């Protein structure tokens, strides 16, 4: 095992075991290096790596702290990696969304509040009947983010937020080239919202599946 990898593993063990908790300040570099049997240089490299993935927070002049380890914070690293996707993997991202998003939508049925549903409804009303493709895609992202947030599962919310980026260009492309894409998307959004208001989990799951599958099916036919 590389020396830096060993240092990362040892810091990880301290966090997993509870020796270091969220918000805790790490001991001074010289003390921690001696405690873990590491060189100060390898410890420094490990801290740098763990700060990049939001495990540690290096505060200049103050010290190094364990972050909150909140799922949304930790999954930012995944969003960064996802940004490097190739165009030929978009279908794979859509397939993952088709698995997770209907489940999140069904979960939201029993948890999302009427006030949250009113916000989603107002967003759809504000779009009107003939929004531009760019307006529709931006609204689509907010619409689904609002529903997944309503599921009450922060991990699921962060995962889907990170996965939605790679499919944005495909949705814009579809809106520009498929004749009924805008009206179909608006119709599907209304149907999902109606199922949520009716507290019908299976209908909400089904409409969310149809909504994502329609983009996936269109993209398959154009590649």
TrEMBL record:
Name the species this protein comes from: Streptomyces mauvecolor
Keywords of this protein's UniProt record, alphabetized?
DNA-binding, Transcription, Transcription regulation
Chain ranges of the HTH gntR-type domain: 1-69
Looking at the record's lineage, which domain of life comes first? Bacteria
Upper classification of the organism: Bacteria, Bacillati, Actinomycetota, Actinomycetes, Kitasatosporales
Entries under PANTHER family matching the protein: TRANSCRIPTIONAL REGULATOR, GNTR FAMILY, UXU OPERON TRANSCRIPTIONAL REGULATOR
Its recorded name reads FadR/GntR family transcriptional regulator
């Amino acid at each position: 095992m590389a020396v830096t990898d060993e240092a990362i593993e040892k810091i990880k063990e301290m966090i997993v075991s509870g020796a270091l908790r969220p918000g805790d300040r790490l001991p001074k570099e010289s003390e921690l290096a001696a405690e873990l049997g590491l060189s100060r240089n390898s410890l420094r490299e490990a801290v740098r790596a763990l700060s990049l993935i939001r495990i540690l927070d290096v505060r200049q002049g103050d010290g190094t702290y364990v972050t909150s380890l909140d799922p949304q914070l930790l999954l930012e690293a995944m969003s960064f990696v996802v940004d490097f996707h190739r165009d030929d993997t978009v279908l794979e991202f859509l397939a993952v969304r088709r698995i997770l998003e209907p489940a999140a939508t069904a979960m939201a049925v029993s948890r999302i509040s009427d006030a949250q549903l009113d916000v989603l409804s107002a967003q759809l009303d504000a779009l009107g009947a003939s929004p531009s493709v760019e307006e529709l895609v931006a609204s689509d992202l907010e619409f689904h983010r609002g529903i997944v947030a309503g599921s009450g599962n922060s991990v699921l919310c962060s995962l889907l937020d990170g996965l939605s980026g790679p499919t944005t260009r495909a949705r814009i492309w579809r809106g520009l080239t498929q004749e009924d894409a805008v009206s179909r998307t608006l119709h599907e959004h209304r149907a999902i919202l109606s199922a949520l208001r009716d507290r019908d989990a299976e209908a909400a799951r089904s409409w969310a599946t149809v909504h994502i599958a329609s983009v996936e099916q269109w993209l398959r036919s154009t590649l």
